[in-house]
Every structure is written in C-alpha cells, then in structure tokens.
Write a structure and sequence with these properties.
With about 450 residues, the chain is α/β, with parallel strands linked by helices. The chain has two domains: about 60-190, OB fold (Dihydrolipoamide Acetyltransferase, E2P) (Beta Barrel), CATH 2.40.50; about 245-455, Rossmann fold (3-Layer(aba) Sandwich). The protein is built from 13 helices and 18 strands. The strands form three sheets. It has an eight-stranded mixed sheet with strand order 1-17-18-16-15-12-13-14, sandwiched between helices. Strands 4-3-2-5-6-7-8 form a seven-stranded mixed sheet, covered by helices on one side. A three-stranded antiparallel sheet has the order 10-9-11.
Length: about 450
C-alpha cells in the first residue's frame, strides 16, 4: 500500500493510506442507527461491511477530466470545483479491467506524436470515461470527449482518426471506443456500443439457499450438490448499470432468498395467483434473476427511461421470459411498460377492482395490469426515494410484502417511517455501495401488518 500513498482519490472520504474496512464498518453502523431511531427493531437490522480488498478494484464505471502536466496528459477528478490529478495513470477504485485499459489508453495518447490526433484533437481532449462488465474478463467501453468539433473535418482526416481508434482498440483490448465532440459521435469497434454480462444463480440442493456468482463458476467436485442458472444481461453504454458487482451480488442474493421465503405460501394455496409489481426496474438487474427463479406467475416491470425499457425487452428475450415472443417457457413472464412510477401508482388506484379491466384477457395492456392485485411490490428508486403516489399505493393497494432497495439513505428513513403505518420491517440489510465514500445500499423487507404467513412465524 505504501507505493500507492501518493495516489489521490478526489472526493473520497477514505484515502488509500487509511483503513477502508474500518471506514466501511463505521458507515454501515451509522446507517443502522438511523433506522433504529425511527423504530426499526435492531434485531432485524443487519450490516455487511466491506473487507479491505473489497474497498478497491470494484467500480464498473468512472469518468475523469483530462489535464496537461509537464507536456503529458493526465487523469483528474473534480473536488470542490477543482480538477485534482490522480497522481497515476490508473484509478485503484475501478475494476482491474478498467485500470489496465486506463494505463494503456493514456500511454498510447501520450506516445502519439504525429497525424491529426496530435495536431488538433490531443490538445482538446477534455475528459474520458470507462465502463466495464461485472465479470472482470469481459467488455470494456472507452469514451473520449473533445472540445474541438470533429464533424467539420475532411473525409481523409476522419478516416485517419478512425484508423487511430482501431489501432487503440487493438492495443488496449477495448470493446468499443467512442470519440465524441459537438454534433458528432464516432464509434470504433462494436456498434451500437453495449456491455454484455453473464452471471449465475447458484442453488444449493441441501438447503435451497441462493447465491449469485459474478465470475463464471468452475466445475467442482461439489457440482452435484448445486444447480447453476445463467442470467444474461445486455446493457446500453449510455444507460445506468449497477456500479459495484460485489454489492450487486449481495443485494440480488438477498432479494432472491427473501422472495423465495415469501412465495412459499403459494405452494400451500394453489388457487392464489402470485404477481409481483416492480417499479424503477432499470434494464432488469433484479427482474431477470427473479424471472429465472420461477417464483411468480407474472412480473410487471415499470421503468420511465426509454433506453432502459428497450434494454429490458432485449434482456427478457435473451432470458426467455418475454411474453411478446410467444414462447411458452418455464420462466416467469415479464410484462414491460414504460412509464413514471408515480403516474402508474395513481392510475392503478383508479382502475383497481374495475371488473371490466380485471377480466380483460389481453395481458399486454396497461389497463389490465392496473387493475390486478399484487402480492409483492419491489422498488429500487433513485436517491430521492419514492414519490407520494407510490407510497400511497403501497399503503392502500393489495401488497402483502414490500422489497425496498435503496441508495438514498435519508429518503429511505423517510419512506420507511411513512410505510410503517401499515407495514412492519422484517429484515433490513445494509451493504457498502461505494466503499471509501459515504454511499450505502439498504435492502428492506416489509410485511403488511396483520398478514399471517407461516413462513415468518
């Protein structure tokens, strides 16, 4: 670690010469106290701090400014409105895949001493961003942003720039290089740019417990004691993806095990339909795994961002759970709708229990799903938390259980306090979303008060 002390982490609370594991322990403990103050039973609050190794090499997406120092370009990050150089040509918080590409890209840029790139664009290189797969050995996308426009160049100059980009992709093992300036974007490599990932659900045969594996699991002598289910993800380059594969695996394992316990009741009541409504579903990080776990009769997924909706549809096809494809697979069908969560909540309240919509045979329509009863509500809202309409729907709807995945510490406390009017917290698990920063991710399971479920007696 001593060799890395000179490296600066601008904007980070815990620097490299400080103990990341201790910082993680203190921050998740502080978040637990916040929940205890609003009445959450402390015996139901659990914390999963990061160990020292997990506080480095985890971030799957990061962006940097480019500054010039001693005639060489360097990576920098803003802190208090000032660009602070990292002090190295890599970022220890990023995944090893990104760190390796960062070194190679900066080296190639600084070695470039002729041609259009050096004469015109090297001096206008303003920033760079990197995105990698959760799986360390797979994709990496690099974006270089220029102040000077590319679009008004001669055709020969554009061809030269593309040739330079192709050479950079080959030298640095880049999946797609995006060269962006005002009015023009050039994609070199895979186009349109996206990140592919494959993770696995591992189910133990002895106790049925579920674990998410990010890296490809190797065949072992214990393979007969577990089942492996692959989940496929295709994520647009410019859309949000979970930035920490460690935390994502912890959260997804928790969600699946919690839902498995909840849906045990469906095996006792054969006439009951188990539907799940998922709001703020993104491109399906939770949705795909839940579908392939076959816990529900149907999942309704709502997302406002059109790019994420399109990606979710692709992912549902890849995972054989898209009812629009007309496949009669074993996985839970996922009905996908673009829309604002608050708008959905208000219309659901309006349409619920209208028999004309409840009996509508067309499950592809919003009106049909507005009117249905759902046993489980899964929400993963932005940092600002749930809107008033969503909270009211949760209170007044048919939901027996709420699964709340939160990256907003203050908003979660407010929302849990509101929902506690009708729901009890059965479990609250706090993980370290961004080690060495103040950010956490909290997983909450709430059950409607008065519901008798033998699984939780």
């Amino acid at each position: 670690m001593s060799s890395q002390i000179s490296i600066t982490l601008p904007g980070y609370e815990c620097q490299l010469d400080e103990k990341g594991a201790l910082h993680s322990q203190l921050k998740v403990r502080s978040a637990a106290l916040d929940l205890a103050k609003i009445g959450v039973n402390e015996q139901f609050i659990h914390t999963i701090p990061s160990n020292e190794n997990e506080t480095l090499n985890y971030r799957c997406g990061c962006s940097f400014q480019i500054v010039s120092l001693k005639n060489n370009l360097r990576f920098a990050m803003r802190s208090k409105q000032v660009a602070v150089p990292l002090g190295a040509d890599f970022f220890p918080i990023a995944t090893p895949r990104i760190q390796d590409v960062m070194r190679k890209v900066m080296n190639q840029i600084n070695l470039t001493d002729e041609g259009m790139f050096n004469q015109t664009l090297k001096g206008s290189l303003a920033s760079a961003s990197f995105a990698s797969s959760w799986n360390a050995q797979k994709d990496c996308i690099v974006t270089l942003n220029f102040n000077n426009p590319i679009h008004n160049r001669e055709t020969s100059e554009i061809s030269e720039l593309i040739e330079w980009g192709e050479s950079l992709c080959q030298e640095c093992q880049i999946t797609t290089l995006i060269l962006r300036s005002k009015k023009m974007v050039l994609n070199v490599g895979r186009s349109p740019p996206f990140i592919d990932d494959t993770i696995h659900i591992r189910i133990r045969h002895d106790d049925g417990s579920i674990e998410i594996c990010i890296e490809s699991p190797e065949e072992t002598s214990n393979s007969s004691k577990q089942s492996l289910i692959p989940i496929f993800y295709r994520k647009p380059e410019d859309a949000f993806q979970h930035p920490n594969s460690n935390t994502m695996a912890q959260a997804l394992s928790w969600v699946l095990n919690t839902l498995k316990e909840i849906t045990k009741e469906s095996k006792r009541c054969v006439t009951k339909k188990y539907f799940m409504l998922e709001m703020y579903c993104g491109s399906g990080a939770h949705t795909m795994a839940i579908s392939k776990s076959k816990l529900f009769e149907a999942i309704v997924a709502v997302e406002i961002d059109r790019r994420l909706v399109d990606a979710l549809k692709v992912n549902s096809t890849l995972n054989d759970c898209n009812p629009e494809e007309g496949k009669d697979g074993d996985n839970t069908p996922v009905y996908i709708f673009q829309g604002d969560a608050s708008e959905w909540a208000s219309k659901s309240t309006l349409y619920r229990r209208r028999e004309s919509f409840m009996e509508d045979a067309n499950k592809m329509t919003k009106k049909f799903w507005f009117a249905q009863d759902y046993e489980v509500l899964l929400v993963d809202p932005p940092r600002s938390g749930l809107g008033e309409e969503v909270c009211n729907l949760a209170l007044n709807g048919s939901f027996e259980h709420i699964i709340y995945v939160s990256c907003g510490r203050e908003a979660l406390v407010k929302d849990v306090a509101f929902l506690s009017r009708a729901f009890d917290v059965l479990d609250c698990t706090i993980t370290d979303l961004f080690p060495r920063t103040s950010s956490i991710e909290t997983l909450v399971h709430m059950r409607r008060r008065g519901i008798k479920d033998p699984c939780f007696e």
